[in-house]
Amino acid sequence: MSQSDDKSNLNRAEDFLQMFKKGAEFTQDLLKENERLRFRIVKLEESLKECDQVGGTVLSQDSARLLKKIEELEQEKAEILGRVRRAEEENQDFANRYVEIEEENNMLANLYIASYQLHSTLDFKEVTQIILEIVINLIGAEEFGLLLLDEKTNRLEPIACEGLELGQLPSVGVGSGIIGGSVKSGENYFIESMEEYQRDFLNPMVCIPLKIKEHVIGVIVIYKLLTQKEKFTSVDYELFSLLAGHAATAVFSSRLYSESERKLSTIQGFIDLLTK
């Protein structure tokens, strides 16, 4: 082999070594860059995790505040609803009371009219009829009677009734049974249970003594109420007391007037007889 060939081979070997070195250096650079990128990725992942943790904490805090606010609003809503319910109950009470007052006013107005009618006449029969109408219209009785005291015999005798025959009503001595006992005491009598009541002429469901101060002149006895009248109300009890006084005064005045008229007529007859 010639020297020129040896030199040529040596040059190629050097070129190959240079290329190998450059390839090794390039590979080393690639490995370093890859390591750097991997480290950067790890750092980014850690940063993201930290952001997620911080964000989660913030979200948790916001959620807690929102939940607390919701609870406060729910509590406030419950309090408002409670006040509304109490206001509705008060309004209902006021409405019921208003209705009761209206009923009382109507009853008192009717009683005033009835008492005016009672005292507008001195005719005994008219007074008796007015009492019957008052018991029907204001109290709501269907079967009842009016008994007056005969002071000579000290017995209560029936003089008028509604829904019954006059002969069905009893003659009762003062102090005898429920009727006589009510007249003797001067106190109103009411049966305890109206649903179980069966008509008994000696034992009425209601007794209303007619009295002027402490002097009893008669009694109203009730045996049956109208169909639409299921029970007595507080207004009815007041009516009983007021009616007892007004009716007693009207009956007493009309009886005195009738007796005086009768006596006057008798005296006038004697005078006319004597003058003739």
Characteristic terms for this protein:
276 residues; 14% strand; rod-shaped; alpha+beta; 6-stranded antiparallel sheet; Beta-Lactamase; 66% helix; 4 helices; 6 strands
Write the layout of secondary structure elements.
Layout (H helix, E strand, L loop, with lengths): L2 H116 L5 H16 L1 E10 L4 E8 L9 E2 L3 H9 L3 E2 L15 E7 L2 E11 L8 H42 L1
Antiparallel strand pairs: 1-2, 1-6, 2-3, 4-5, 5-6
Identify the quaternary structure here: single chain
- What's the helix count? 4
Number of strands: 6
Sketch the topology as an H/E string, one letter per element. HHEEEHEEEH
| Share in β-strands | 5-15%
* Strand order in the sheet with the most strands: 3-2-1-6-5-4
Could you tell me the CATH topology label of the largest domain: Beta-Lactamase
Helix content: 55-70%
Unreliable parts: none
| Rounded radius of gyration (Å) | 55 Å
Structural class by helix and strand composition: alpha+beta
- The CATH superfamily of the largest domain is GAF domain
